[in-house]
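Worked example

This section walks through a single chain of length 145. The input is the sequence exactly as stored; nothing has been trimmed or padded.
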Amino acid sequence: MAEAAAGIVLGAVTIIVPIYKSYKRCAELLQDILHPTEDLKSFTVKFITQKRFFEMECELLLSSAVGNETAQRMLEEEQHQQWKDQHFIEWCEANVSGPLEMALKTSMETLKEISKRLAQGNSSKGAMTTSSVRIVTTALNTLTF
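Given that input, the structure is written out below as tokens.
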């Protein structure tokens, strides 16, 4: 029973890297749009701000267990050895709760949807038609974090 709970807790923490990478990819897609509308520019600013908040929260969470430098490397490296370190796993068991797991999973689903919507609207070389920009902007504004 304790092993199952540990797996759930650690699982919540280990999806941080895929979420971090999804934020980076979506930010790149948004910034590659050649002729964004004002609404899309506004969404992009909000998205980049949300991305930075996520990064800072993850750095704070991880650095309390492993220090600042290691936390930053862990965010960049999904296979970083620290993710499997027994002391880190024990720290996760003691400090990471169910609400964090739900928040992380929700973020991941939202980012998948944003990425999908951006990919649907993009044509070659990052250019989007005016109608595609409007469709993507409308779709993105319905999503929440």
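What to look for: The chain has one domain: 2-141.
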